[in-house]
Amino acid sequence: xxxxxxxxxxxxxxxxVARYHAPLLRYLRLASPGEEEDLAQETFLAxxxxxxxxxxxxxxxxxxxxxxxxxxxxxxxxxxxxxxxxMPVEELGVAAGWGCDSPEQIAIRAQQRALLEFALGxxxxxxxxxxxxxxxEGLSGEEAARILNLALPALKTRLHRARLRLMAAVRKExx
Amino acid sequence: xxHPLDQVIAGLRCAEVLERLPLYLEGxxxxxxxxxxxxxxxxxxxxxxxxxxxxxxxxQLHTLLNEPSAPDPSAEARLQQRLAGLLDGESLT
Lengths: 175, 93
Fold this sequence. Notes:
Chain A is mainly alpha-helical. Helix content of chain A is 74%, strand content 0%.
């Protein structure tokens, strides 16, 4: 498909859209709420224009997510990108509910889709995109690391911290 | 004062269990570390309860938010139309 796009075949672009539009829109809706349709359009347009440069080191899916992620990342305000000072993991664990009376209540609350989406929306964009790619979309650690341009061990550490912050956000809504 | 996660049970601090939890859940912990972690969790109510809640929340992210691709035909049609319009515009210039 990508080779056909590179050759200027419009039908190939339409097929690419038909195949990847739904998952990309879902990802973009959570990554950049309110901008998902524009960003999806920009993603496919960038894929069309960059098709000749596509190297088969990554899958088409990983390549499209990389484009979408970069567009979503650049559309956000710089102020949002400043990460909060890192808390020790022990403190994150306590905030997430380690040692509280009933951690199972956090799991029960997380079964509510609206609450989970809301909690995800309260996180810093860097945390949110990790959770979206790895846990929501179910990409492998290697794929997510490639998209985010991170080494795999760094991705794992950040993902763990993002999950703890998500649990803390769910717990906060509980109180 | 000692941090609650500094408690040592079965030779492992709760903080170490928390740190290794994701590797345990994805099944990539070395066998000796996995056995030590499981022994700790058997004896530590806090780590057991928190570990299950953590696993549950991670599972819910995929189950609840990754809806089976229910494509929105109108959104896709809009996009196909917009892309065609943009590409037509470019080929005229």
